[in-house]
Prior knowledge:
Helix content: 40-55%
Order of helices and strands: HHHHHEHEHHHHHEEEHEHEHHEHEEEEH
Mean pLDDT: 85
Low-confidence stretches: none
CATH topology of the largest domain: Rossmann fold
Strand content: 5-15%
Amino acid sequence: MNLRRWLTPGIGIKRWLFVVFVGELGLALAGALALREVYRDVQVPGSFQTLVSALTLQFLPYGLRGVIVAAAGLGLFLYGSWRVIRVIVGPFVSPDQEQPLVEVIYQKRFLARGPRIVAIGGGTGLSSLLRGLKEHTSNITAIVAMADDGGSTGLLRQSMGIPPVGDIRNCIVALADAEPLMGQLLQFRFPEEEAGSLSGHAVGNLLIAAMTRIQEEDFEEAVRQMNRVLAVRGQVVPSSASPLVLHARLRDGRELSGQSVITRTPGIEEVWLTPGDVSACADAVRAIAEADLIVLGPGSLYTSILPSLLIEEIRAAVIASSALRLYVCNVATQVGETSGYDLADHVTALERHTQPGLVDVVLANNQFVARPAVENAPDSVRLRWPPGGPDAPRLVLDDVVDRENAHHHDPARLAAAVMRIYEREALAHRHARVVRSA
C-alpha cells in the first residue's frame, strides 16, 4: 500500500527517482566502458584467470549475465534509496506516529492540487460531506450557519454572547488532521449528573469560547486559530461573526423564533433572519468567489442550509459565482421541518427563499436498501421531479446512503459522487457561463 502511494501521480517523487536512475545509468555505462578497455588491454596472470572468469560470470550465456547484473543493480538501487529516505526523514518522524510519512506527503502535495470546494450548511450532514471530501482535496472551505440556539451551543450563546459554536466544532473535527484521540476529546460532553456547571457542554465548544476570549471577542479570528491549531485540511468559517436568530412563518399563519423550535415544527412556509442586515464573514465571501465547486447541503433545509443563504452577501456571492453549484438533497425527511417532503419540495423551498436557477445540479440518493437506525425512522426522500424549465437544475441520482443508517449519507460514497459530478460537468458549465456572459 505504501509503495503504491509513493508512486501516486502528482506526489512529486517519481520524476526525481527517474533523474537519479538516469544519473546512475550514466555512471554504470562509464564504468562498463572502462572495464571493457581494461578487460581488453590488461593481461591477467594465469593464476587469476579462474577468479576473473567467475567474477565476470563468463561461464553463463551473455544475455543471462546482463539480466543478473541488471536485477542485482536494481535491487541495490531500490534498497539504497529506501535507506537514504529513512535516514533523512527519521529525525522528523515521531516513532509513535500512526500516519505513514507517505500519507503526509500525499496530503500536502497531491491533495493541495485538488479543486477548490465550498460547502455551505451545518449539522451532521455537512460534517459527513467534509469527512469524505478531505480524501479528494485539501482546498475545502466549510461555511457554517450561525443560527443554532440549542444545547451546549445555546447555553454558551446566552451566557457569553458569542455566535453558536457546535457546528463549527463538528466541522473542525471532520476536517482535522489531528490525532483521533484529539477528535474524541473535542467531542466529549461532560455528563449531566457529574459535571455541575459544565454538564452537557462539549470540550470543543468550551475551547472555541475560550479562544474567542483570547482573541478579544474576535470570533472570526478565534475560528481561524482553531483551524490552525488543529491542522484542519482546508478551513472552517462562520457565515457571520454575529449570532443570528432564525424565524419561521407556518402555513396556518403562526410565527416561531429559534432554530431549536423551528426544526421540530412541520408546515413551514417561510424563514428569515434577524438582524436582517448582518454582514457575512469576509473569508466566506472570498472563498465563494474563488471556488470551483459550491455544494449546498446536505443538512436540515430550513435550519442549516438556508440560514447562510439568507445572508445577502453570501447569497449574492453564490449567484455571481462562476463555479458549478450543486445541491445535495437529504436521503431522508426530517421529523418536523421537512415531514412529507419529496425531492421536488426540497428544491422548490430552496429556490423560493433564494432565486430560481440558484443551483445547476441536484444530487439525490436512489438506493433505498439501507437499514433504519431506529424504529419509526423518517421516510426516505421520494424522487418526484418537476418538469424542467429554462432555469431547472439537472438531476443526478447516485448511491450515497449509509447502509447502516438510512437517515444519513455515507461520507465516502457522497464525496465520490460529488467529485464525479465535478469532473464531468464543471468544465462544460464554465464554458456555458462564458458563452452566456459574452
